[in-house]
Amino acid sequence: MVIVGALYFFNSRQPVSTSSSSSSPSSVQVINQNNQQGEYRSVISNGNYLTSSARGMTVTTESNFNAQSFELSLNELSKRFFSTRRYIFQEGQYLSSDLLSSWLDRYSNSNRSGLNPPDNGRTDDSRNPYYLQSIEENDFMNQVNGSKLNLEGMTIGLAMNRIDHYTRTPGGPEYTQNISRAEMVAQGRTAAAKVLRRLRAMNQIPKNLPILIVMYENAPEDSLAGGAPYAYYLSKSGNTIGNWTNVNFQNIVFPKSDTDRSPIGTQDNTNFVNFKNEIQNFFPNISYATAQAHYENGSLNGLNININTSFYSVSEIKAFATYISETAPKYFNNSIPIRISLSASNQLMAVITKDANSSYRIIYLYSY
Amino acid sequence: MVIVGALYFFNSRQPVSTSSSSSSPSSVQVINQNNQQGEYRSVISNGNYLTSSARGMTVTTESNFNAQSFELSLNELSKRFFSTRRYIFQEGQYLSSDLLSSWLDRYSNSNRSGLNPPDNGRTDDSRNPYYLQSIEENDFMNQVNGSKLNLEGMTIGLAMNRIDHYTRTPGGPEYTQNISRAEMVAQGRTAAAKVLRRLRAMNQIPKNLPILIVMYENAPEDSLAGGAPYAYYLSKSGNTIGNWTNVNFQNIVFPKSDTDRSPIGTQDNTNFVNFKNEIQNFFPNISYATAQAHYENGSLNGLNININTSFYSVSEIKAFATYISETAPKYFNNSIPIRISLSASNQLMAVITKDANSSYRIIYLYSY
Questions:
Q1: pLDDT by residue (tens digit) across B290-303?
Q2: Chain B 176-235, CB below 8 Å of chain A: which residues?
Q3: CATH T-level topology, domain B252-364
Q4: C-alpha distance from A1 to closest chain B C-alpha (Å)
């Protein structure tokens, strides 16, 4: 039990009850009592949303796509084990930023908790790269006796590099070092085993706390989509990791580049290109149309499309958005959720969305 | 009849029929056959959305807010007279950009069609200001015999200035000249009468074409909302204007500035400020929250709220968006449509919308 004290429900803003075992006088509210749109409830403590001091901690700056995608992956995979009905989401409160900073650093005489390999002094492909880029903790709480929140689950995400960037001299030109998939997986397993052991040794963490460990592969820095999780392990107790479960998720950018020879998404890419050609034919002012395609087990499971035009008239945007909503169903299966963002000169003008198995809906972003 | 020839319906992409009186061989498609979301169908001609050569024509550059708001006003008022079920929207095809350019210019010996007053040589408040800022034409078509489009209605909007900006020497500092409301209204009536007479004299325009003339007052350039229409006249035939109908629309920015003494929106502004304070209390990282409030006949009829935060975590944005959707109903009447845009560091992260008398829905703009 980590957060105790008076518990406020959102709508009444009155204390419901006070825990008699209150160790720190704090007030706790829960947002999203009704699990709107399948999302977790979350925690307001002492009048503020409870943030993690360690969130967003990475070895070097990550692309926005990886950072968002990593967090979303943890969120989605957590839902498989920690139901949104039962658990309340809390940003990680157990791994401090100092602690994570030392874990993410290289191993050295002065930092024996470093999970990245020691500096071997080399400045070419024989150097030891940074394999582990980022660690994120999510806590899953349960509200007991309607008055306090107990830690009842945890997700730990490890984001791994396939490409490490480095300089030979401070401020010098940047070099890249590729990491094979096998090497990334092996290094990730070693790091995850150490992380689990360290968590199980922490007194504040209940002995048999279910801990979900998610391994995530970062996309290259210049990718227009984030990376994807590739494995997870749910530890119910104990400090060793058994068999990993592979996760077959991919995020692909359409139109596929000429150098992209991967078999996945070939037909979907053709559909997207045909869709793009059809709308470009009718509205020739389109400066670009790209998509992020999300695959789970080889099946297209979501599509974010960005269309940028040079239109500026309200009427034309209305006509174009409507046209898109009439054209898209011919090219994309009704079972996948789709979000199409329509911008004019990079200003978002309309969002056309559909959930799985539902119809398209247009939201205009015009001003009064 | 202005557009004739083969007519394509969107879904079949096959010619439905060919007009025997085809004067120009063009193919016409109609977007939005089902009047989705109460919007007009619109016209695709020869494979392209039919734009107006004159759209966006103004004396000087207009603020984005005025330009969008002017167009939206014409669209909304047109719906009162030209039903979206019967009529198809077409961008103005009768007033060319050269023609409108001469109309919007000052009257002079070399430009006897100028609707703005002659230059009297003064460079202070005794100068003749530009009263008329912009003219926009919308055409309303009817599809007859399933094969061709006839012009059956037209809306002409005249956007008037309350503040005119000028320089005394080319490239010199900018001065402003205020125009009283009475002067704007009088000058607008004179200009509108001339415009109607000129339209009725055009051979291409059917004799008894219903023409809706909408008078619009621009907001000051630095306003965070657009101006509003203030009067309209529907001319069923003939070239004189009878009694104008006043339109009581207003767009107001919340929180109201200290200098805003207008009685309208006082309670709504208080509600907004209380809403803002409540969410700011829980999420202190909000850098600003403002709203555009749209009034019709003194009643709040729509609200666009912009909230900008410095959050970047997916979880916090989810929690905040959910929190907003739970908090807003306490402050805003369920009968008004509301759109809340939630940005982090000026990047749009979520849009929380509700139509009139419906519940809030969150659309996230995350990447994969």
A1: 999 999 999 999 99
A2: 225-226
A3: GMP Synthetase; Chain A, domain 3 (3.30.300)
A4: 22
